Amino acid sequence: xxxxxxxxxxxxxxxxxxxxxxxxxxxxxxxxxxxxxxxxxxxxxxxxxxxxxxxxxxxxxxxxxxxxxxxxxxxxxxxxxxxxxxxxxxxxxxxxxxxxxxxxxxxxxxxxxxxxxxxxxxxxxxxxxxxxxxxxxxxxxxxxxxxxxxxxxxxxxxxxxxxxxxxxxxxxxxxxxxxxxxxxxxxxxxxxxxxxxxxxxxxxxxxxxxxxxxxxxxxxxxxxxxxxxxxxxxxxxxxxxxxxxxxxxxxxxxxxxxxxxxxxxxxxxxxxxxxxxxxxxxxxxxxxxxxxxxxxxxxxxxxxxxxxxxxxxxxxxxxxxxxxxxxxxxxxxxxxxxxxxxxxxxxxxxxxxxxxxxxxxxxxxxxxxxxxxxxxxxxxxxxxxxxxxxxxxxxxxxxx
Length: 400
Ligand SMILES: Nc1ncnc2c1ncn2[C@@H]1O[C@H](COP(=O)(O)OP(=O)(O)O)[C@@H](O)[C@H]1O
Ligand SMILES: [Mg+2]
What we know:
alpha/beta, Rossmann fold, 2 domains, 13 strands, about 45% helix, elongated, binds adenosine-5'-diphosphate, binds magnesium ion
């Protein structure tokens, strides 16, 4: 039996005006929302609150005291869960503002003092016509496929640590999915129990809904979740091809980043993940085999362009120089830039894995390299001297 959907949705409101507070309280009561809280305040308080705690499904937020409502709401959307429905309340009645709010993915704008009928209608349609929210929601989490060109290049280790940095240092909500249900090592590296039910979800996608997916997650902390499994080796998983699409769809409404550990075997599921990802982090080594398999994964990903990107990472650089190709030659043959190079480190990765921990808030070169990848995923450009890739890497080595 699939778990039943909860009848009541979670709801919060941040309002400045006591009259508006009363109207919202009545309207929420009228449509049977009991799991809600209405607080005095506005957009600033909402941002502050949801930087630390989970957002409700629906939010009413006052922007009347904000000088820059659009940029404040963008910040709120940054910290909020991607699927949240928002009604903004303000004193300005202007079409330009309204249009900008809609573009941002705000569900509705209501002018203060609020008329209860107008608010009631907006709330109802936001809550009961969920599809409308999906239509207006410009924000869903990014799908990041982390693919190792070869087994052992360090893709799972890198994924676990990027997820830890994203959630720990950058306050993003992250879910990491290990698609190798038999030999996956993600939960081992994070010292976690595997999730029960992931296999069932992949075999019977018709049973899956938002609540089902949320129950599958194991949490590292309140912003970092994991979906993994440890299936008996003598039992094959009978994946339904559309299952992963359904699961990822739910996960992307829950978290800012869905990082997927793509297994080293090829099946419909891994194809789907690679060809539908927004970003593929392609982890490889500077060897001939690493070059060949990186090239094949780039082909599978297809073309880069708006909203789709490949980030090539050479890991363990310097581990065995006799087998490493010159990086300029590597790039030329691959016909793709090497975006990041992570040096071989004989101490930290081993220690982390043995202790089941990740690198967060540490000031070591490995952490710096990982942070640069996170910045790259965010689209932050670095000053010339610390730019990733070959140039930056060698410049850093010289500085040491
Ligand atoms: N930069 C690095 N330097 C040294 N060892 C590394 C580095 N990155 C990863 N490793 C080690 O490589 C091994 C394989 O990593 P893993 O992430 O399981 O590979 P994959 O998932 O690509 O098969 C692990 O023991 C890990 O400690
Ligand atoms: Mg792995």
